[in-house]
Amino acid sequence: MFDRTAGSHVVELLKQWNVDHIYGMPGDSINELMEELRKVDIRFIQIRHEETGALAASAYSKLTGHIGVCLSIAGPGAIHLQNGLYDAKKDKTPVLAIVGQVTSTSVGTDTFQELKLESMFEDVSVYNRRLQNAEQLPDMLNQAIRAAYAEKGPAVLVVSDDLFSTKIKREKEMTSPQYSVPHIRAAEEDLKEALKLLETAKKPVILAGKGAQDAPGEVLAFSERLKAPIIASLPAKGLIPDDHPNNLGQLGQLGTEPAEQAMKQADLVILAGTAYPYREYLPDKAPAIQIDVEPRVIGKYYPATVGVVGELGPALAWLTSQLGEKDPGFLNQFQEKRSAWHDKLRADIDKQTDMLQPQQVLGEIQHIMERDAVVSLDVGSITIWTAKYLQLTGHKLVLSSWLGTMGCGLPGALAAKLAYPNRQAIVIAGDGGFSMGMQDFVTAVKYELPMIIVVFNNQKLQLIEDEQKMAGNKPTNVDLANIDFAAFAIACGGEGYTVKTRAELQDALSKAKASKQPVVIDAYVEDISAVL
After folding, report:
1. Backbone φ/ψ region at 518: left (φ over 0), alpha (ψ -120 to 50), beta
2. What residue stretches are annotated with the Thiamine pyrophosphate enzyme central domain (predicted)?
3. What is the DSSP string of 469-481?
């Protein structure tokens, strides 16, 4: 018979679920759980703001496919988790939030820091429960984690702190820490209907999304057999190597001219593992094949002619094996356009200017970026510059794609170094995005997580200014009070460099690459638009 605290069951089950670290901040409604965590080898990453913890948990899940875990107290801590949990929800990745609550005898009395947490988390979560008694805790933890994996989103478990220290007796375990990944194979009749469209298409275009993360080889083989150019959604950047001659880059506001032109001319669109939402960048009337494991996204943003529900890799492998020879004329045309476009990008990077420009900074980052580096990309005009000018081949990219939350860059790098300690982590951020959560740079210092953070400093919310101009309005309230980010980094115990010339940037990046500490490079860049 097992006679021990419910909290000890929690930490043991987390270990069985292969959880090796948790992001959080100690506090009075999780102190009993903290006591149990103290006794085991699950690493507790003490962050300075709960939003950082939730964003890091989400990023860790995106990078590894394993559940990310964050922890907070009731009241204010739980509120701070929301942004990171919504990021996980929108990007469909599993996260567990264990949220403390006031003592079980005080719930409902409107005591200090009490909130109705179940209501607050209802919209963001795929699983959202508050424990009534300690006996439920092990089984509900298993349910929460399974739900997060199965439904690809945040699971929230609200627990009064006294329940963690309550002893429970169990003669046998009622549930197990197991999740079996389903394998979904497409129906052959759907594949045959798709094949008919592929055989008659003269100008097919593949739009690949993050569903290609387990099938980049199949996407490339399919492209080469179909003689079709590939366009990658931003979350899929790097999954299909940017240096592959069939890859035209991204589409839309942050895309390339060849990608836009190819999509306009397409007589068939293959949506491969993406529910691309920007209808204005897709053809007006072209038929479409959409392949996805989620039936509910088929035809969601574009009227699919044929929907194929199944895993992308096996579906594309079958179609590739059945396809006959195709005319390469359309593909050859856009390979030439792609080559000319890349020549233009290189000229932009190499040109000499009085002041550093964003694309030049990205060109220098490219030079020091290791082959297996993890790039954590923040949100803003920097997203557009990076999509266009940074070439990813064998690298990992993590970002907030559907929520687009500024301040995600640093948490993404924290997660990257915990997931892959021996891989280079690079943050690309604007001064607006970095300053939203810069306090947790000291977390990287504390846990000795070396990373290179390049802050593109133009003292402005550049993308917001561009949007205001495009709406026909006069830009307002977009100028930022400047911060000495290099001095801040040094004050936190890391390294910091201020750069205003290409030579200074090259020197700083070289030092940062060799450093064993977190580094901030405060790069002053010219105030130029990424979109206008």
Report:
1. beta
2. 191-317
3. HHTTPPP-S-B--
